[in-house]
Amino acid sequence: MKKKLVVFTGAGISAESGLKTFRGSDGLWEGYNIEEVATPAGWKKDPALVLEFYNLRRKQCVEAQPNAAHLALVDFEALYDVKVITQNIDDLHERAGSRCVLHLHGEIRKAQSSLSPRFVYRMETDEIRMGDSCELGSQLRPHVVWFGEAVPNLEKAIDITAEADIFVVIGTSLQVYPAATLLQETNAGCKVYLLDPNADQISVPSHVVRIAKNAGEGVEELRVLLAE
């Protein structure tokens, strides 16, 4: 039976495909104030601005291509039972070929009802416009989890993590909660690896093996370590 390898990815892995990380040092996300475009209050105040922001992000995601790290994780499926849990809203893992991907913060290429999150739709175009509505008659919004909203897939992610024989964190500083608490859900016998250029500055338990490299280089070093 294959060992269970669970990979938890953040913005760092997508950055190597040209997608910018969450926010700059000035607290802005490509010139947009986070409070205005990634909160329920921002949506209520100016839904057109929110749609504009995510339409731009969606276009970037469509144009981006999976990188070496995404592809390497697919290769691991030959040796391990691999499940990917990602904080990213792009679909680069799926396009690389990963067969089991759980999105914690939603998927940018899907839309949902602004009235009920149960109504989710795969988008046929790259844009959501004002006036686009679901079967309930409500305005469509991006299928993403905003600040202040519940993370619906968190319990499922915890269950997957608890069963891992190997848990690998790639490209996240473990600062976004509640997702960052997943590391605490690993079982006592689980081997844990942290791959991030700033791994040495991230506070993690002493048993975690740090690989202070970017995602592509770090996954190759991980491949060697797992083969030992």
UniProtKB/TrEMBL annotation:
Q: InterPro entries this protein is in?
A: DHS-like_NAD/FAD-binding_dom, NAD-dep_sirtuin_deacylases, Sirtuin, Sirtuin_cat_small_dom_sf, Sirtuin_class_III, Ssirtuin_cat_dom
| Entries under SUPFAM superfamilies matching the protein | DHS-like NAD/FAD-binding domain (SSF52467)
Isomerase found in the keyword field:
no
Molecular-function GO terms, alphabetical: histone deacetylase activity, NAD-dependent; NAD+ binding; protein-malonyllysine demalonylase activity; protein-succinyllysine desuccinylase activity
Q: Which key words tag this protein in UniProt?
A: Cytoplasm, NAD, Transferase
The secretion signal range is none
Enzyme Commission code: 2.3.1.286
Deacetylase sirtuin-type domain residues = 1-228
> Any one cellular component term from GO for this entry?
cytoplasm
Which reaction(s) does the protein catalyse, per the Swiss-Prot or TrEMBL entry?
N(6)-succinyl-L-lysyl-[protein] + NAD(+) + H2O = 2''-O-succinyl-ADP-D-ribose + nicotinamide + L-lysyl-[protein]; N(6)-acetyl-L-lysyl-[protein] + NAD(+) + H2O = 2''-O-acetyl-ADP-D-ribose + nicotinamide + L-lysyl-[protein]
Q: What class of enzyme is it?
A: transferase
Binding positions for NAD(+) per the UniProt entry: 10-29, 87-90, 171-173, 211
Q: Which Pfam families match?
A: SIR2 (PF02146)
Residues binding substrate, per UniProt: Y54, R57
Where is this chain's protein located in or outside the cell?
Cytoplasm
Active site (UniProt): H105
Lineage: superkingdom: Bacteria
What the protein does comes down to: NAD-dependent lysine deacetylase and desuccinylase that specifically removes acetyl and succinyl groups on target proteins. Modulates the activities of several proteins which are inactive in their acylated form.
The similarity annotation says: Belongs to the sirtuin family. Class III subfamily.
Q: What does the domain comment read?
A: 2 residues (Tyr-54 and Arg-57) present in a large hydrophobic pocket are probably involved in substrate specificity. They are important for desuccinylation activity, but dispensable for deacetylation activity.
Q: What PANTHER family does the record point to?
A: NAD-DEPENDENT PROTEIN DEACYLASE, NAD-DEPENDENT PROTEIN DEACYLASE SIRTUIN-5, MITOCHONDRIAL-RELATED
Q: What is the name attached to this protein's record?
A: NAD-dependent protein deacylase
Origin organism is: Sphingobacterium psychroaquaticum
- Taxonomic classification: Bacteria, Pseudomonadati, Bacteroidota, Sphingobacteriia, Sphingobacteriales
